[in-house]
Amino acid sequence: MTREKAPRRPRAETPKGFRDYFGAEVTERKAMLDAIAEVYHLHGFEALETSAVETVEALGKFLPDVDRPNEGVFAWQEDEKDWLALRYDLTAPLARVAAQYRNDLASPYRRYAMGPVWRNEKPGPGRFRQFYQCDADTVGAPSVAADAEICAMLANALERVGIPRGDYVVKVNNRKVLNGVMEVAGVLDPSDPSKFENERGIVLRAIDKIDRLGDAGVRLLLGEGRKDDSGDFTKGAGLSAEQAEVVMGFVSAKRATGAATVARLRELVGNSVLGAEGVNELETIATLLDAQGFGADRIELDPGVVRGLGYYTGPVFEAELTFEILDEKGNKRQFGSVSGGGRYDDLVKRFTGQAVPATGVSIGVDRLLAALRAKGRMGAEAAGPVVVTVMDRDRMSDYFAMAADLRNAGIRAEVYLGNPKQFGNQLKYADKRQSPIAVIQGSDEAARGVVVLKDLILGAKIAENATLEEWKDRPAQREVARGDLVDTVRQMLAEG
Amino acid sequence: MTREKAPRRPRAETPKGFRDYFGAEVTERKAMLDAIAEVYHLHGFEALETSAVETVEALGKFLPDVDRPNEGVFAWQEDEKDWLALRYDLTAPLARVAAQYRNDLASPYRRYAMGPVWRNEKPGPGRFRQFYQCDADTVGAPSVAADAEICAMLANALERVGIPRGDYVVKVNNRKVLNGVMEVAGVLDPSDPSKFENERGIVLRAIDKIDRLGDAGVRLLLGEGRKDDSGDFTKGAGLSAEQAEVVMGFVSAKRATGAATVARLRELVGNSVLGAEGVNELETIATLLDAQGFGADRIELDPGVVRGLGYYTGPVFEAELTFEILDEKGNKRQFGSVSGGGRYDDLVKRFTGQAVPATGVSIGVDRLLAALRAKGRMGAEAAGPVVVTVMDRDRMSDYFAMAADLRNAGIRAEVYLGNPKQFGNQLKYADKRQSPIAVIQGSDEAARGVVVLKDLILGAKIAENATLEEWKDRPAQREVARGDLVDTVRQMLAEG
């Protein structure tokens, strides 16, 4: 083990794959999460904040058979004892909580949670090792009414944060229907579900990629396999053309109305008991949502949506934004998925041995924020503070009093606290702070009981896009009585 | 290394020293932090959210000379590379950010930050390994006007969250004055500050304990040392009685007015240049605060406050709540400190080699929350949702529509989603949810177009403290037309 002998300065660097958020990046995300929390709360969901740290044992599924179980998670060992790890999502901690507090919590337990999660993955462009999730789940409700509620709440939440109706759609499907179709295709044997498990996993992941690979690509993966552009070969599920045809029939089973889609699915699942159960569940969900006024313009049945995660056991859903944006290459494309979820009935069972039905949804916070910025709902100029400049450092009290007066009127304000010697630096500072107004009072102005207000919005607008001509009637600065400071600033801000 | 052969169920346990927060515990803390953030923002401070993970190198001071640098922090090694760790406070990440982004950030940089921090300490009663901090700091402002601003903002923040004026006091002192007094006492040699460094550390920690140990206990620690109740001996600073007298004179130098305290301190620091500088700084701070109307009822000079942390270099401050609470033994005692801070001019220098002046404050989120609960400002009955019960599971759509109607009127509402067979379970559930009202509609009521509203607030009040007599005019349940559901519920909630 090498050690550095001479002390050197530490590097000032965010660890690789992590990010720092500044100013509006923090407050805009917070505003969005607050709005979503409000919707969840209104629906009877309770806040839950678990510790960021879990035992690796409780987290479970990332535990490979190695001494150091840090694949996928950030983990460390307590002195010769338990391995601890940072949570990788908000569902695993919920399962732990639902088991641990099962005698105290109301059942069904509706909870929402928002906060950072951590993934020990290779950092890459757009791939981060800490990011926010925002989840709502119902634990202990066997009926698909709980799934319908989650779908409706998701639509409400999207509208509440500023995605207009028509710009999103919540798509609903059911894993049981897919399994029924698999039964018909001969890759699921109800008397021995362990048979063809691997093949079904491949089918699931293939369907989940249809947006990217298209029909033909998915068919390759259902059959022998597919070579991608880089030449890498992905082994397929080995289905015959007839079997693949059955599966592809399911993927494209969406019809113009929910009722028509249900009818088509009923044909496809044939005599499969599980499949019929899934179709009935979808029908119930559609009926419940219709009754609440959630028509196909907001929530629709779409057999093309399967979600990649293995643990879903019934209804699955996904919220997609339908408006177009320009991708990195300048091509128009739909914004796509910002949220997904479904029913997972086995996660709590890991702890207690008893099956506990659960369903929930997770909103991709960063993607939804990006969508709101694309819609112009966020990312507006951040309002900087009014900056009270310092002309005479013996009169700091006066400058502080001006800032206090402004704040008492609810106006964001601060006194310049750098070295006041170079006045130019103070104005540069005010610019960098996106300050709308600089307040100036030298000894001459003080003697006359006035202050000068410099309009920095004007300067910024001219620099940005307007000509001076357009603004010529607006004074670049005005002198007002000290007693009129607050009123004049308020008026200037209203004009700005 | 032992391994368990047979798979067993994982334990559903919060890791030792960590906590889960439920419902109002989450939302009340959030409301408090939101209010504080509003005050910070109004003062021109910008939000900053750094990653929870830092390199151990950047965190610095917890790095002992051992292979595994996890003393005090939770740390792990990236594959043969950097050690990473969870942040232990919000100041170390700020120093890293101030160095890393020094060319982009406005200077001075005012920032606030709130979020969890982690300490790898032995868990114990009331000692947790993850807790919230809420900080505001100004980096790059050499003038003590920045310290005065922080003190004033701290007072504003306390009042904003609900601590009335008179129930708190912000105490201000200056390390330079203490060092001046040390110079007079002969334990600081300005020509060689490294001399007596250990002794001065002991003096600092001794003074910091005066509330607990009293004058006599502190004098023992200034001299040879002190044996505590358990028999453990703490070595003292080894000061003579005369030297200790000088130090104790400083601790008790507080006078009735700030001006009188300043005058007393000027006597005590004698010819010490550093001491005189400290007294002048205190005077400037007092003058600035007076001018803004922060009198001694809110902010006062108190030489008894030194703060334990080694890195402070100038002004230090502490917010104390002055009202009394009952401690665990039923004795009255003052609530005490909820916040502290001070000037630290050397933290950024670690990275850049250039001194960057900085000052800031940290609010103890859990203690302030406890104070607000003690003052009855929080912890009121959490408002549970109106629960729409399920009498007839074929009419879930009707029940969902009722809940949706209530929510559209802004009333928190949910449909019971457990097994509806036992109606008693539904009412027990509503009770556990602290629901104010249960909505009931069986087939009979449905046929007549009415709903029954059961008043659960009434039941709770009777169970809690009132006699039935007091409530006899209030009906336990009422039947209203389905069309009057929302209006009646709203009216009942207003009465409740």
UniProtKB/TrEMBL annotation, chains A, B:
Keyword terms, alphabetized: Aminoacyl-tRNA synthetase, ATP-binding, Cytoplasm, Ligase, Nucleotide-binding, Protein biosynthesis
Organism placement in taxonomy: Bacteria, Pseudomonadati, Pseudomonadota, Alphaproteobacteria, Rhodobacterales
Record GO terms (molecular function): ATP binding; histidine-tRNA ligase activity
Species the sequence originates in: Falsigemmobacter intermedius
GO cellular component terms, A-Z: cytoplasm
InterPro entries in UniProt: aa-tRNA-synth_II, aa-tRNA-synth_II/BPL/LPL, Anticodon-bd, Anticodon-bd_dom_sf, His-tRNA-ligase, HisRS-like_core, HisRS/HisZ, HisRS_anticodon
Record protein name field: Histidine--tRNA ligase
Entry binding sites for L-histidine: D89, L90, T91, R119, Q133, D137, R307, Y311, Y312
EC code(s) of this entry: 6.1.1.21
HAMAP family the UniProt entry points to: His_tRNA_synth
SUPFAM superfamilies: Class II aaRS ABD-related (SSF52954), Class II aaRS and biotin synthetases (SSF55681)
Catalyzed reactions per annotation: tRNA(His) + L-histidine + ATP = L-histidyl-tRNA(His) + AMP + diphosphate + H(+)
The Aminoacyl-transfer RNA synthetases class-II family profile domain, residue ranges: 1-385
Pfam family, one: tRNA-synt_His
Subcellular location: Cytoplasm
Chief place where the protein resides: cytoplasm
GO biological process: histidyl-tRNA aminoacylation
Subunit structure: Homodimer.
Family: Belongs to the class-II aminoacyl-tRNA synthetase family.
